[in-house]
Design goal:
Length: 111
């Protein structure tokens, strides 16, 4: 059973930064793509960023140039560096790996 655990959320003012971390248990971490999703109140969950096993990345348009996804295979961890945060980035952020979800971490951006 794979376990996925996020951390790093919090309250930040608009224009600030946060770094989310996601640790995934299980073997062969490096072979899997990893992704960050978010769900704002009253909205559907959406894919924010994804990184493949080869390190290729993609982002939704609204975070391009502000967010960076990266991975450290030695630590079984994926990160989401979020800069220039906006109130509309407020959401619960979830980490996802091949059918397994974390419990989410809350990011609140105040204006």
């Amino acid at each position: 059973q794979v376990q996925v655990a996020e951390s790093g959320g919090g309250l930040v003012q608009a224009g600030g930064s946060l770094r989310l971390s996601c640790a995934a248990s299980g073997s062969n971490f490096s072979r899997y793509a990893m992704a960050w999703y978010r769900q704002a109140p009253g909205k559907q969950r959406e894919l924010v960023a994804r990184i493949t096993s080869l390190g290729n990345t993609n982002y939704i348009d609204s975070v391009k140039g502000r967010f960076t996804i990266s991975r450290d295979n030695a630590k079984n961890t994926v990160y989401l560096q979020m800069n220039s945060l906006k109130p509309e980035d407020t959401a619960v952020y979830y980490c996802y790996r091949d059918g397994f979800w974390g419990q989410g971490t809350t990011v609140t951006v105040s204006s």
